[in-house]
Amino acid sequence: MYAKCFKRVIDFTLALGALLVLLLPLLILTVIGAVKMKGNPFFTQPRPGKGERVFRLIKFRTMTNEKGSDGKLLPDEQRITGYGRFLRATSLDELPELLNILIGDMAIIGPRPQLVRDMVFMTPEQRRRHEVRPGLSGLAQISGRNALKWENKLALDLEYIKNISFKEDLRIVLTTLKVVLGRTETTEEIAVTSDFGDYLLEKGLVDPQTYEEKQKEAKELLGV
Q1: Cα–Cα separations (whole angstroms), residue 117 to 3, 11, 61, 92, 168
Q2: What are the residue ranges spanned by the domains of the chain?
Q3: CA-to-CA distance for 140 and 157, rounded, in angstroms?
Q4: What is the pLDDT of residues 112-127, one digit of tens each?
């Protein structure tokens, strides 16, 4: 009953309340972000949500759009700014996702929304994580975040959807606050994480041909 009915009502109510309470800080971060990023302070990206329906995730921008001589974006670790590292270290870059929660794309607690190019490399069992709305935080985020291997992270997502309850969501919320306030991750862990497909390729768990086929599948899903 909680997962099917009350969870969405609670998410909407809390997201609306948080947006009202945090309105001034959000406006301040928007202005600072516009100055620091020399333009649009927001970053949006398509992510697979419930039922694998793609939605636009909203975050504060933490990286510039600097390109190399070949016209392509520089690597993430070269484009992230000091301000961007601060936003990620404090998780302030995630605050605009409250809008995603308000309109129903996300939940407060659930599996974190990964990239479409991550989803296509998942097994049918791992893709069951998309049976529920993705969350602002989740079981994997309080269990190691970027320090976890992909397989462990996805396993925790599946564990969560099998045991959704108000008590568990409350525990994750409280633990998330504790983790954010006492974060000890290095800036490298915060700034750089490999895509699931790249991870599988590096580990020899997928061959180059399959890798290219999956990347093509992801682009087709995005209409690119």
Answers
A1: 28, 27, 20, 25, 29
A2: 2-222
A3: 7
A4: 999 999 999 999 999 9
